[in-house]
Design goal:
With about 110 residues, this protein is mostly helical. It contains 5 helices and no strands. It has 2 domains: about 40 residues, no CATH class; about 55 residues, no CATH class. The longest helix has 15 residues.
Amino acid sequence: MLGFDNQGLNVLVLRDAEELALAFRQALATADDAERPGLERAVALVDEQIALSDADLRVRWTRRALAGSGVDESTDRISVIRALRKAEPDLGLATAVRLAGEAYGTAD
């Protein structure tokens, strides 16, 4: 989840993956042979998410926010920013510029 402030760049990335990983590991400690493979896979998937940087998460969020808008790597910078602010009306201009640049390489 992200938070926005129209006064400038103020992006908050919330991470709950550590709590989820702990819960899966606790369940794995008492799992029977039938449950073990699924829980081991779940732990591995959560660990992959934990390893992502905040920038990776912002890129993923931005691209999801723009899904279906026709925006891609070939879209000009102004159109990317316009589409992002249309998709997320509370997003400030500075934040939209930063997110667009991270997601589509359009930063100044």
